[in-house]
Amino acid sequence: MASGIKDKVVILGMGCSEFGERWDMSSDMLMVEAFTEALADAGIEKKQIEAAWLGSALDDFNVGNSALPLATALRLQNIPVTRVENMCATGTEALRGAVYAVASGAVDVAMALGVEKLKDTGFGGLPIRTKGSVNDLWMPYGSAPGTFAQLAGAYRAKHGISAEDLKRGMAHVSWKSHQNGADSPKAHLRKPVDMDTIINAPLIADPLGLFDCCGVSDGAACAIVTTPEMAMSLGKNAADLVAVKALQICASNGWESQYSEWDGASVRNTQVAAARAYREAGITDPKADISMAEVHDCFSITELVTMEDLGLSEEGRATFDFLDGRYDRDGALPAQVDGGLKCFGHPVGASGLRMAYEVHAQLLGRGGQRQLRKVDFGLTHNLGGQPSNSVSSVSIFGRL
Amino acid sequence: MAQGSLISVSGYLPLLRFDRKVARGELKWSGLGGSGRGRRAVAAWDEDALTMAVEAARSLGIDGAVDGVVFASTSSPFSDRSMAGLVSEALRLNHGASVLDVANTRRAAVTALLKALKADSAELIVAGEKRAASPGSGQHLNWGDGASAALVGPGDGIARLLGHATVNADLLDVFTEADHGVPYSAEDRFVRDETVQEIYIPAIKAALDNAGVAAIDVAIAAVPEPVDGIYKALAKPCGLKADNVCPDITAQAGDLGAAMPLFSLAMALEHAEPGQKILLAGFGNGADVLILEATGKAGSTARDALARGVPLASYSRFLNLTGGITLDWGPRSEVNQKVAASTLLRHGRDMHGFVGGRDARGNVQFPKTPIPVRPDAEGPETYEDVPLADVPAKVVSMTADRLNFTPDPPFYFGLVQFENGARVAMEHCDIEGRAPEVGDAVRMRFRIKAMDRQRHFRTYFWKAAPVERPQLPKEA
User: Fold this and answer.
1) Residue among B302, B3, B300, B295 nearest B158 (CA)
2) What are residue A260's phi and psi, to 5 degrees?
3) pLDDT band at residue A16 using 50, 70 and 90 as cut-offs
4) Does residue A283 share a domain with residue A229?
5) A207 to chain B: closest CA residue
6) Is the residue at A281 inside a domain?
7) Alpha carbon of B439: minimum distance to chain A alpha carbons (Å)
8) pLDDT tens per residue across span B236-265
9) Is A296 a catalytic residue?
10) Catalytic site residue A346?
11) Which residues of B touch A305 (CB under 8 A)?
């Protein structure tokens, strides 16, 4: 019987490039920046990495497809390299590949690296892509903010929340992330923004305004993983190791968008992935046990609804939990401590690994100005696609 | 020889009506602003002659097979793709029906109607028009976008043919050369005088003679006027006392081109009492004139179409919607929308007809998939076809997307729940002002789905729209 991934794999080292409009950097340079930091953190030589996973979601923009961009950029020596793509869960998907490879015993040391070079598209926001030759005949070509904005109306209708309350709640989501981003040296956006500016910003997709939306960024993040035993044989102390407690990914099968049960006010994949992750990690009371969360705040409404889907807020209460400061850095359950997608940035393929990077840093006390008082379990969450048709990941990290 | 009856006839107009006085104001400096009187129907970016013709035909209440479908237009979006065939698919008519596109003259639909009335078969005739014209031209302001449709068949209907006549003459009131795409017109005074003397008077007199009907007994005239004042000039010489319904249509919606005659016939038959005689003309390089006797009433589609809509007061938006300007929408508009012909052949019929499927346990879904979406489905199942275009539906989720490219922002879309259980992610259309909210009812409209600007192709699908259109306010 499957026993899950808990404590079978630890993070040996992590790295993360600066995120942002890296006009001076191409994707291979971003990969090297993140990898160099991760390798130094791991304290190993490149040749000790036995397998690698590359996460890149938008292969037609600069990174390119297949394993070759990673193998070439890092000059890996003929090891197995696999490129994975799972929309905004791509970074976590890459990590899952590396973690599972180590857990299976196939290799001792594996690497996951996510990268995206979105600012070379020549415009803001994600590019519109084909949904497949059949789907293109009927599916709307909605933008990312358009697809996630759908949550807002359905959420309001389900929970009887006024447009004004929801707008303020969403604004607080973004306000909090801007506060945190200001203390993140590698973040894309490092400027606090006041509530009035957020609330009165131009609409992008009703009711989401400019500050309800994360931008897109260039960046890369990297994790090198191994077994606890191997880590200690390499000279690491158990206290310096962050273990993978759970790693779950869940994909829609069309139920939300084609079957008549879903109310459009929540994301079932996140609920399912979270339940599995808590079970895998042995967490029975996530509200109390999760110390921090890096969730997929591509849009403020996403973060708000996600907190309910993760069981961190009661259903219908997230708006008021945000307004009450529960998820602020000095709140009961700090979220997006590094600024999140909203301010740290969202180079799609790297984002899941960037979240792990912050949780890793917080667990090891490396948070600098952002360091939280007490961190036992950190949760990361990605949501790829759109609420009605998504891939969701939930990972939990803690000390060994 | 057996003769068919007119079973039903209808008219359709797009939502927007451009106030001509806006153009008069904008173009005052140039002297090209026209009369400034009335309004002009303006098709949405995702409407063309085909989509509007389909909408007109949907009002006819076709509940059985037809023997043939005729599509008439001088602005067909394709010159080598059967529009009548697509009409047949959109309306889910029998696949074996004959389909025929008629074009190149504004009287094409009347000619087709005459042939159908003289035959003993069930024929659907649709006409749609979205004609290009250069800003500053009279046509740009006086023409309107719209459609009409007529169903002819054996048995009793709402009108029968009493007589007819045709006059052919290459009178160039206006012409549009294929490679140029916009019209060139002759002097109004020449057009009025010669249309009356050389075409309409002889054709009308011959038709009345053929029908054995005295001009004084004609109760309603539906006579398109290529320029104002034509009917007034011909009525006295012909002995006609009836009012002509066409000038009202031109004033409120514009000259609808090939769609004008059947639209005006729909207007006439909404008002006519059984037994009253109607004079119907189709004009364009000659004329076909039909004398009809009302045997019933048409539904109020044309009158409703004229009465309902939303004023358009932006000249630049009018230009954008009519192709008068080409805006640079930036790189976000550079979306490759190539469609594979093989994909379209496999799935086009379900797309055009909006046909979902009922799985083995009764759940309805769109599109059909090898394994149904029903949670307990274990493997492939066969489906029963379920058309969705006329099924009541409500909004599940919705937004106005201002980032995504659309030729007429914003881009509305969301999940739509159909009463029979189907749920579909859909674009919305015809939203001006308040957008539908979660739980609001919507209806389906046949529209252009995507425009492939690189290969000059367009695909068609259905979009959700508000159920009711607002009453047009009186002109200021």
Assistant:
1) B295
2) -95, 25
3) very high
4) no
5) B399
6) yes
7) 9
8) 999 999 999 999 999 999 999 999 999 999
9) no
10) yes
11) none
Task: Look at residue A153 in the predicted model and tell me its pLDDT.
Answer: 95
User: Per the CB < 8 Å rule, is B399 touching A134?
Assistant: no
Residue of A nearest to B413 (CA): A140
Task: Note whether A236 and A338 are same-domain residues.
Answer: no
A40 plus A179 within the same structural domain:
no
What is the rounded distance in angstroms from the CA atom of residue A244 to the CA atom of residue B49?
60
pLDDT at residue B2 above 70? no
At A340, the pLDDT band (50, 70, 90 cuts) reads very high
Name the one residue in this structure whose structure tokens are 């009165």.
Answer: A200
- C-alpha distances (whole Å) from B42 to each of B213, B323, B434, B445 are 38, 11, 20, 16
Strands in B277-283's sheet, in edge-to-edge order, are B98-103, B68-73, B123-129, B146-153, B5-12, B159-168, B286-294, B277-283, B218-222, B243-244
The pLDDT value given to residue A61: 66
Identity of the amino acid at A9: V
Residues A165 and A102 in one domain: no
Q: How many CB atoms sit inside 10 A of residue A96's CB?
A: 24
**Long-range contacts of range B232-237, CB-CB < 8 Å, 24 or more positions apart?**
B233/B192, B233/B196, B234/B196, B234/B200, B234/B201, B234/B204, B237/B196, B237/B201
Which CATH number fits the domain that encloses residue A108? 3.40.47.10
Q: Which two tokens stand for residue B125?
A: 């005739």
The DSSP output letter for B436 is P
Domain B5-322 has CATH 3.40.47.10: yes
- ipTM passes above 0.90: yes
Residue A8 is predicted with a pLDDT of 98
